[in-house]
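Sequence, please.
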């Protein structure tokens, strides 16, 4: 990725990739100190030793030959420099990510929707799933979707078609963290990867036990094995499903992990960064238009356009996370709402917020005065650019500093992590390794493979370098381009799905 504009970008990198990754660290003086930072100072979370991620306890399958890059088409044929929105990926990872659904979708016509009753699942509510059944006994390929994804999204429907075309029955359902799913499972505040993996396993087991209302046949009798396709956050859940003992009874004989962040904590920090450092520079209308994809004015996106693309990612995920945690809090931690609002309304917090805003304003006025002193030595365009950068940096920091901890609609991932996930689960241990792909892959058998793109904007580049230094082909299929899930519309990806999930 490239910078927003010099020091503006570097400043915000400090905010969420550095200082905010550990609550106990001091925040640099040039970074706004928010209500949340004050709250965490007064309600310190003691971190104990890391929770140990048990290695996967599966044997290699001699009947499975891992897929290598040489088994697949030349990926470069699916890469383009100029945006066409025809299923290829761009050389820029942000463009590939924003345009990840801009291709001709793939569908199946014989989908059967099932409703899993509470007496079958053990949940408190009904679970709705989508299935497609082959006419004969076959493997059941289960799709575990990314954060906030729905089973009827264009990507999900296309992956469903790929899996069915490979000869599998297919099972799909909404992301386990979505509010409709969480209400049905009542498994508590979203973000507990271990428990969410167990709930996914319960859904799979329930479908296998369910009877066909027409024939009376148990669906599991049609299934020869279970296969997992985990996308983004769903990839981490797929690796958790493999740690559930009942999975060996099915059994699982394939698991493909696609575009799963190499470190979920760092990804959440990046998304917070994109929201606060980039999103405030653009109108809601500009960001909403990105839902239809984006084509830059020139072949290479400008700095302003790159900022817009990052803003779009931050905007979408911010909406998901604030909606999820607002719903979770009302059901699981209702007393917390008033507690946080009272804290934000206190005289001390208000005074601090006003002091911080005044400091930011003074620093901005000083920077503007320094710029004016240099005006005669700058070109007209450079002067205008620097003045706009100062204005946008000030507005971003002002918005960040104004965020009240009691306003759940403005929550970031960090708010949810510290104000809900850890207090609700009483997590005094550090769970971070459960969000690290390298740790989740320990002990992985030969039928577990990972595909990621080096230019995925949801990964910190240094983390990707460390990951690929230890995880190698064929366990890792590493692409130079493709962004986050942008690779899924390519001919290359369809070939991978066909080979990896080929039913025998």
């Amino acid at each position: 990725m490239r910078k927003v504009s010099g020091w503006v970008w570097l400043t915000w990198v400090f905010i969420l990739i550095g200082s905010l990754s550990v609550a106990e660290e001091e925040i640099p003086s040039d970074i706004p100190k928010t209500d949340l930072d004050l709250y965490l100072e007064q309600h310190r979370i003691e971190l104990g030793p890391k929770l140990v991620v048990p290695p996967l306890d599966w044997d290699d399958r001699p009947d499975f030959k891992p897929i290598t890059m040489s088994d697949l088409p030349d990926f470069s044929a699916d890469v383009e420099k100029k945006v066409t929105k025809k299923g290829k990926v761009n050389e820029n990872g942000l463009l590939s990510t924003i345009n990840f659904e801009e291709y001709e979708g793939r569908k199946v016509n014989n989908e059967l929707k099932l409703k899993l009753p509470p007496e079958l699942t053990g949940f408190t509510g009904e679970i709705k799933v989508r299935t497609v059944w082959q006419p004969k006994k076959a493997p059941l390929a289960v799709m575990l979707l990314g954060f906030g994804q729905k089973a009827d999204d264009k990507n999900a429907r296309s992956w469903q078609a790929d899996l069915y075309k490979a000869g599998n029955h297919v099972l799909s359902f909404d992301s386990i963290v979505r509010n409709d799913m969480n209400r049905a499972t009542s498994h508590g505040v979203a973000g507990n990867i271990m428990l969410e993996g167990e709930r996914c396993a319960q859904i799979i087991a329930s479908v296998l036990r369910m009877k066909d209302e027409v024939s009376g046949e148990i669906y599991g009798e049609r299934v020869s094995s279970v296969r997992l396709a985990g996308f983004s956050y769903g990839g981490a859940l797929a690796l958790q499903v493999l740690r559930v003992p009942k999975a060996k009874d099915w059994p699982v004989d394939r698991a493909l992990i696609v575009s799963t962040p190499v470190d979920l904590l760092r990804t959440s920090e990046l998304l917070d960064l994109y929201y606060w450092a980039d999103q405030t520079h653009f109108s809601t209308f500009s960001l909403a238009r990105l839902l239809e994809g984006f084509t830059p004015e020139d072949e290479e996106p400008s700095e302003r356009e790159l900022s817009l693309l990052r803003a779009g990612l931050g905007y979408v995920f911010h909406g998901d996370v604030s909606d999820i945690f607002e719903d979770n809090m009302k059901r699981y931690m209702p007393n917390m709402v008033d507690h946080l609002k009272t804290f934000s309304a206190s005289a001390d917090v208000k005074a601090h917020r006003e002091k911080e805003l005044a400091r930011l304003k003074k620093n901005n006025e000083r920077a503007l005065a320094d710029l004016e002193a240099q005006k005669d030595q700058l070109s007209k365009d450079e002067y205008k650019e620097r003045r706009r950068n100062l204005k946008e940096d000030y507005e971003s920091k002002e918005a960040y500093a104004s965020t009240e901890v009691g306003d759940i609609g403005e929550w970031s991932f960090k708010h949810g992590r510290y104000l809900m996930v850890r207090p609700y689960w009483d997590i005094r241990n550090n769970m971070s390794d459960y969000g690290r792909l390298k740790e989740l892959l320990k002990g992985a058998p030969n039928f577990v493979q990972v595909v990621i793109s080096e230019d995925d904007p949801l990964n910190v580049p240094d983390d990707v370098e460390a990951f690929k230094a230890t995880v190698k082909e064929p366990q890792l299929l590493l692409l130079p381009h493709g962004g986050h899930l942008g690779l899924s519309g390519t001919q290359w990806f369809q070939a991978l799905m066909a080979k990896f999930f080929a039913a025998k």
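Confidence is low (pLDDT under 50) at residues 1-28.
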